[in-house]
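Q: Could you write out the predicted structure for this multi-component system? I'm mainly interested in how the pieces pack against one another.
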Amino acid sequence: MTDTPITDARTVQPMGELSPHTEGPPLIEATDAGRQLALRWSNGNQARFPLTWLRDHCACAECRHPMTRERLYMALEVPEQAPAMRLEDGNLILTWADGHVSRFDAVWLHQRRPGQTRDDAVPSRRPWAQDYRPTRVAHADFMAGTAGERAWLTALLRDGLVLLENGPLADEEVRRLAGRIGPLRATNFGARFDVKSKPNPNNAAYTAIGLALHTDLPNWRNPPDIQLLYCLENDAEGGESTFFDGFAAAEALRRQNPEAFRRLSETEIDFRFQDEEHDLVWTAPLLSLDEQGQVIEVRLNNWIRDTLRLPLEEIDAWYDAYRAFWALAQDPRNRLEFSLAPGEMVAFDNRRVLHGRRAFDPSTGRRHLQGTYLDLDMCESRLRVLARRG
Amino acid sequence: MTDTPITDARTVQPMGELSPHTEGPPLIEATDAGRQLALRWSNGNQARFPLTWLRDHCACAECRHPMTRERLYMALEVPEQAPAMRLEDGNLILTWADGHVSRFDAVWLHQRRPGQTRDDAVPSRRPWAQDYRPTRVAHADFMAGTAGERAWLTALLRDGLVLLENGPLADEEVRRLAGRIGPLRATNFGARFDVKSKPNPNNAAYTAIGLALHTDLPNWRNPPDIQLLYCLENDAEGGESTFFDGFAAAEALRRQNPEAFRRLSETEIDFRFQDEEHDLVWTAPLLSLDEQGQVIEVRLNNWIRDTLRLPLEEIDAWYDAYRAFWALAQDPRNRLEFSLAPGEMVAFDNRRVLHGRRAFDPSTGRRHLQGTYLDLDMCESRLRVLARRG
């Protein structure tokens, strides 16, 4: 075991956090309340913290690695007696029975009062309204620094879709843009794919046919989160891109046809992609809900919907529900449709927003998009890091 | 829209499937049963298929793309009247009211009788017994062809852990091995990482300290599935690898302390990793259950467990439950411990099997592992493809 170097406290971010906790009220009182401490701040807020919690959250260099900021302390014992306590500059200093000293920043504690939720730069998801128009960010603004990239990420995470415009017609630009956010998410189609018609397609995207609205790779446990499609050429007739907010549509279905909604959210079906090298299968409902009943994922892809394996008496009802959801996707009021111009990139949440395209005629011109996927985690992380800059 | 070429049926895999469906009983009877067909096979089995299901599963070149094998037909309409039907060589031929002809292989239908489950080469998970010893596969056998790789994948998916031995001491061998299965899963630590002590670690793995049993990256929505660790050097004192079947332990906890099990499976906590470039947070219970109450994921990582944000009255009870689960991990009967030899690789299911290592003394020798992650989907896919070869 190497010795943990004791780093000068001024060179370590206080409390092992990189997010700010500098502005807020100082503590004005700390009292022993049995197996808890009762604290009061200058703004009148009060809270109790269990001794176990306080010991576990000690941020000294022995309890948190000063370089990695990771917790080294394992809360194996319940502190048997209350520590000696004092306030210093409005912060809390505890000296435990074994002599260990823990220092707690008053604002850090205030932000973490039991039951408080975590502040987060990541916005809530907002369903598309009837007049929804995508946020557009100029490529130059995205590249210039915090504000453009932050606007782009915020719109993407809130609306599930965002456009970048006036970008260069450069091969692999999509890879460069994605690489600012995080590593590419590779799948059985590789880390970066070209959407254009190919002579021996193993996937409908690589033909010129129209693509009905769909989710990419619902046959994976975790379909790709964010899809980026960068347009390099688009002068063939047709080929307009279409998008559809699956979450908004699922809520509409819940209102209009609760039985269809229930069936699509409770019935697991198989999705499967097979070629010479792959056989990727996953079983999931078309609509996934969280424990509060909120829709958190849509999986719709008619091409790779596998054999419907249900009890006989459920089959016709499932098709009825499927058709009801599909009918919503046919309503032009629920969908966006536009032609991507060369130098434009659309990014969207593949697990929320369905995408498709109209057929194009490859004899009239070329259509070439370059695509890749990103993890939502890295998009959220990037937004939190940009938000540190205030 | 391009014309879909009509491919000679003999050059297309029947029914658009690559998995075998050649051996099985022929049909001997098909009768109209209202909105269903009633079928009988030569082995006496009978089943009914709704007309909608049959129309939806037509595998002709118009309804399934002959190259991609993807479904082109969208089941928007319920067939209004029963098709004309006949048996030909024991297979079912339907002629629909609009003249469309669907041919169904008898064995394919037999395998897909409503309510039947899907055959799968992927084994069920088996918890470690007291005398569990990992399957070992020689590197040469893994590389030689189907049998070795299939044995390795089967053990990995069944036991959550498998060893490869007698491999070369070659830089990046782990990348070559993983690349046979699928693309590397990249994270904030890159696509391939070196586990050795580093001067400015941003993670405890890059130090020489002991690593308590843990899950990698529980602060991601989807932590990496399969971790591969290939040993290139290991002559420092200490550094033994430890493993622990989180699923078996969770079941033990459920028996011994149902209240602790309930609390760890119902209480969501935050995991968070922060450095200058990242702020990755996810909220999940320590034990995730499926709808049947089966444990499907363990997330335990004391280093990046973030602030415990719970209502005051739940905090002490959560720590009690955490300690109870942790105590199981301390019992040597529940854990594997061994030294990886140079040329050996361990692969394990990171969402099931916790891993750790004893501290090592870098002044006594070198320890160097190269690691990467794979998606479980690609491991399962590869096993299904290998199983096609019989």
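A: Regarding packing and overall arrangement: Chain A touches chain B through 92 residues (CB under 8 Å).
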